[in-house]
């Protein structure tokens, strides 16, 4: 749900006419805070700031867009606060949408064909032919190429 709120804020930032400060600056700042949270760099104070800013933008914007832009943030924080907490406390995305918080893992279904390693743009995958391969999570950029190339579906996001 955090990623959904970010998606809607991205639209609002792009569509803002820029005439009033709450909408022009406030929606950008909300989007920046959501990005920080979705990247696993947020803290609990960011959640307080996010809600305060969302209420300020909603109550002070002059246009309909500015008054409605914070609604996805406010409603998801009210109904799915545990997801926001998971992002900032545990640095995990329960919905599995924030890729920077996920690890790519090769399961036992791996047959060692090497397609994943061959196509990895940063050489984060290693292993012998016909043996299960491993992903170096410190090197992996989480681009998803390995998942696309694996014909056995042996690579999952966790």
Automatic annotation (TrEMBL):
<dbReference type="InterPro" id="IPR037207">
    <property type="entry name" value="Nuop51_4Fe4S-bd_sf"/>
</dbReference>
<dbReference type="InterPro" id="IPR019575">
    <property type="entry name" value="Nuop51_4Fe4S-bd"/>
</dbReference>
<keyword id="KW-0408">Iron</keyword>
<keyword id="KW-0479">Metal-binding</keyword>
<feature type="domain" description="4Fe-4S ferredoxin-type">
    <location>
        <begin position="101"/>
        <end position="130"/>
    </location>
</feature>
<dbReference type="InterPro" id="IPR017896">
    <property type="entry name" value="4Fe4S_Fe-S-bd"/>
</dbReference>
<protein>
    <submittedName>
        <fullName>NADP-reducing hydrogenase subunit HndC</fullName>
        <ecNumber>1.12.1.3</ecNumber>
    </submittedName>
</protein>
<dbReference type="InterPro" id="IPR017900">
    <property type="entry name" value="4Fe4S_Fe_S_CS"/>
</dbReference>
<dbReference type="InterPro" id="IPR001949">
    <property type="entry name" value="NADH-UbQ_OxRdtase_51kDa_CS"/>
</dbReference>
<dbReference type="Pfam" id="PF13187">
    <property type="entry name" value="Fer4_9"/>
</dbReference>
<dbReference type="GO" id="GO:0050583">
    <property type="term" value="F:hydrogen dehydrogenase (NADP+) activity"/>
</dbReference>
<feature type="domain" description="4Fe-4S ferredoxin-type">
    <location>
        <begin position="131"/>
        <end position="158"/>
    </location>
</feature>
<dbReference type="Pfam" id="PF10589">
    <property type="entry name" value="NADH_4Fe-4S"/>
</dbReference>
<dbReference type="GO" id="GO:0010181">
    <property type="term" value="F:FMN binding"/>
</dbReference>
<dbReference type="GO" id="GO:0051539">
    <property type="term" value="F:4 iron, 4 sulfur cluster binding"/>
</dbReference>
<dbReference type="GO" id="GO:0008137">
    <property type="term" value="F:NADH dehydrogenase (ubiquinone) activity"/>
</dbReference>
<keyword id="KW-0560">Oxidoreductase</keyword>
<dbReference type="GO" id="GO:0046872">
    <property type="term" value="F:metal ion binding"/>
</dbReference>
<keyword id="KW-0411">Iron-sulfur</keyword>
């Amino acid at each position: 749900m955090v990623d959904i709120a970010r998606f809607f804020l991205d639209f609002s930032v792009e569509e803002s006419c820029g005439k009033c400060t709450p909408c022009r600056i406030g929606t950008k700042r909300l989007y920046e805070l959501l990005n920080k949270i979705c990247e696993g760099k947020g803290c609990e104070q960011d959640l307080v700031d996010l809600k305060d800013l969302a209420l300020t933008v909603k109550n002070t914007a002059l246009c309909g867009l500015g008054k409605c832009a914070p609604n996805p943030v406010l409603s998801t924080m009210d109904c799915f606060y545990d997801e926001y907490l998971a992002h900032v406390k545990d640095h995990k995305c329960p919905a599995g949408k924030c890729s920077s918080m996920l690890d790519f893992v090769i399961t036992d279904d791996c047959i060692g064909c090497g397609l994943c390693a061959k196509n990895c743009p940063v050489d984060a995958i290693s292993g012998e032919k016909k043996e299960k391969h491993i992903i170096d999570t410190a090197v992996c950029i989480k681009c998803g190429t390995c998942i696309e190339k694996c014909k056995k579906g042996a690579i999952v996001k966790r």
